Amino acid sequence: MLEFRTQGFNGYAVKYSPFFDSRIAVASAANFGLVGNGRLYILALTATGIVAEKWFDTQDSLYDLAWSESHENQCVVATGDGSIKLFDISLDQFPVQSWQEHKREVFAVHWNLVAKDTFCSSSWDGTIKIWSPNRTDSVLTLPTHSCTYSASFSPHSPSILSSVSSDSHLRLFDLRTPSSASNHLTASIPLHTPPNNIKSPNLPLQHHTIPPSEALTHDWNKYRPQLLAAAGVDRLIRVFDIRNPGQGPVAVLPGHEYAVRKVAWSPHLSDVLLSASYDMTCRVWTDGSALGVDGEQQRQQQQQQQRLSEVQTGGGGDPLAFGGGRELGKMGRHTEFVMGVDWCLFGAEGWCASVGWDERLLVWDVRTVMGQ
Prior knowledge:
It is a single chain. By secondary structure, the chain is mainly beta. The chain contains 1 helix and 28 strands. It has one helix at residues 292-312; strands at 2-5, 10-16, 23-29, 38-46, 49-58, 62-67, 74-79, 83-88, 97-100, 106-111, 119-123, 127-131, 140-143, 148-153, 160-165, 169-174, 185-190, 215-220, 227-232, 237-241, 251-253, 260-265, 272-277, 282-286, 326-331, 338-343, 351-356, 360-365. The protein has a 4-stranded antiparallel beta sheet, with no helix packed on it. It has a 4-stranded antiparallel beta sheet with strand order 2-3-4-5, with no helix packed on it. Strands 6-7-8-9 form a 4-stranded antiparallel beta sheet, with no helix packed on it.
């Protein structure tokens, strides 16, 4: 496990470069992001450890970042003053572009992985904006009418993007649809809906009705274009199939003790995802799909029978666990909230990076924590 100290700055987001396997960027903020400056670190993985190639200071906190998919030296950051800044790491000190349209903190930025010429941002002002690095104003604004913590383009389509918000909803937008009436909105999925398969008359009413809670993060599956994972304040990670949004989640993964701050699907395995939480841990999960259809159905039936038995007998079982998924391992080396995780796209599968409020970046191999 490699470590780098972001002295005086608390980590909020980490991203591996899509061009270089040894370059990592970290977005951070002084004073836990409540007040003060931000800093963008550009770090290099070397034979002697992690070294800082360069850093850029900003007047306000940095909450997220995204590497450009078309320019190897550029990355965009989300700031607490509502601005979005584009840095070229081959230059010094100042951003090459800055946009100021959001009215409140920008909490997420994400580059279009297919078209590669646009990126999106989401803000506490209840909007998502789409930008082009070559324009001085936004291309499009999509209202969500709710504090939007996360927004991202689908890795399978240049025209589809999604978001999760404080109103406990996952929204899907298709830019190919007419903008009239619904502003490209094609689906709004309540995250707190229980899976249809566990709606049993034998369960008490409280297990059918799950209260809404703020959704903080979500991510698209890199191999199955219909699947997204979302998580937030209620500590559960849910996997949704957008082909049938009304059915509720196809998998529910309980285990974190506090809010889940970040989820990221593996770029190498279709069933594996990584999460970061306020409980100071990173956890590795499988959604159960690698078992195959027959194996997954059998496991779902066994889990459902076990949950019914535990709830009916007062055994304290969690009736929300569903779908055959399970926790594969846990990394607990952070000593404060873990705010960001990212997978390395290159080399052996399993390497990842995590940052937290303990002013530390950790680079580690998930295979070393399997079974812990």
